[in-house]
UniProtKB/TrEMBL annotation:
Pfam family, one: TPR_8
Swiss-Prot/TrEMBL keywords: Phosphoprotein, Repeat, TPR repeat
Origin superkingdom: Eukaryota
Residue stretches of each TPR repeat: 104-137, 177-210
Basic and acidic residues compositional bias, start-end: 1-15, 39-49, 60-75
Biased composition, class Polar residues, residue ranges: 17-30
Region listing for Disordered, in residue ranges: 1-80, 257-277
Annotated protein name in UniProt: Tetratricopeptide repeat protein 1
Species this chain originates from: Drosophila willistoni
């Protein structure tokens, strides 16, 4: 297992403009983000390449938090929906909203520690608690919480639920490369190559240097084509059986009908043959 002392950058805590390389190196006091992938890979066959998006914004001065703003959800990953959260926020002052953001940031860090310390179930609960108070207008902050929760679910092999969280993150932040890449790999694991390829293509658009996305665009199309041909063969066989069943009372079968494709248009014509060979 990778060293438990990792930086929060592993969890996409990158909301400011990218810093220069020297500034980025200075801000890191622990091993690289790729060690997150080693932790997740130990629990699944996925390879999650989480490259750093940049440095975190400096935290605001600590403020007192309002612990009674949003109740905890009954389920570990049953966060308040956005409309519920907005209704609660109508009763809060700007100071209370700022305090909630501060507390959500701290909960995220606590969830990160639970993840690194191999307690993904507790991490899920903490990320959900953070989502229940993180301001609704904190688009990237909320996307990151969903992305982190997805990583925790992968540790528990809850792949379909992890896909849902990746989708929530991407809906909030369409350029969230890590969530797109993670969802692409989850789609592959769930035998959904079309969906996986679409995500890999989007990753490549956003980050042409992403090697997994490059490789997937070569590897997946033949797999998809082979699958489609197999489905087409199975469908034609089923249609043939159905046709024979319908034609049998008339003393006919599908062999009496010959399909011919026009090479110039690709369309088909059907010819009737009274006495098939």
């Amino acid at each position: 297992m990778a060293d438990k002392a990792h930086s929060d950058e592993e969890f996409h805590d990158a909301l400011s403009e990218p810093t220069t390389e020297s500034e980025s190196i200075k801000s890191r006091q622990t091993p690289s983000e790729e060690e997150l992938d080693e932790i997740v890979e130990k629990h699944s066959s996925l390879r999650l390449d989480d490259d750093a998006d940049g440095d975190s914004q400096e935290q605001e001065n600590e403020k007192d938090t309002n612990d009674d703003v949003a109740p905890k959800a009954d389920e570990p990953d049953a966060e308040l929906d956005i409309e519920q959260l907005r209704e609660l926020e109508k009763e809060l002052s700007p100071e209370q909203l700022a305090a909630n953001k501060e507390k959500a940031d701290k909960l995220k860090l606590e969830g990160n520690e639970m993840f690194k310390n191999d307690d993904p179930q507790r991490a899920i609960e903490i990320y959900t608690e953070a989502l229940n108070i993180c301001p609704s207008d904190g688009i990237k902050e909320r996307a990151i919480l969903f992305g982190n929760r997805a990583a925790s679910k992968i540790k528990l092999e809850a792949y379909k639920s992890a896909i849902d969280d990746c989708t929530k993150a991407i809906d909030l932040w369409p350029e969230y490369v890590r969530a797109l890449l993670r969802r692409a790999k989850l789609y592959e694991k769930e035998d959904k190559p079309d969906e996986a390829l679409a995500d890999y293509k989007r990753v490549y658009e956003l980050d042409p240097g992403q090697r997994d996305a490059q490789e997937a665009q070569i590897r997946l199309p033949p797999i998809i084509n082979e699958r489609n041909e197999k489905l087409k063969t199975e469908m034609m066989s089923s249609l043939k059986d159905l046709g024979n069943m319908i034609l049998k009372p008339f003393g006919l079968s599908t062999q009496n009908f010959q399909m011919q494709q026009d090479p110039s248009t690709g369309s088909y014509s059907i010819n009737f043959n009274q006495k098939p060979s």
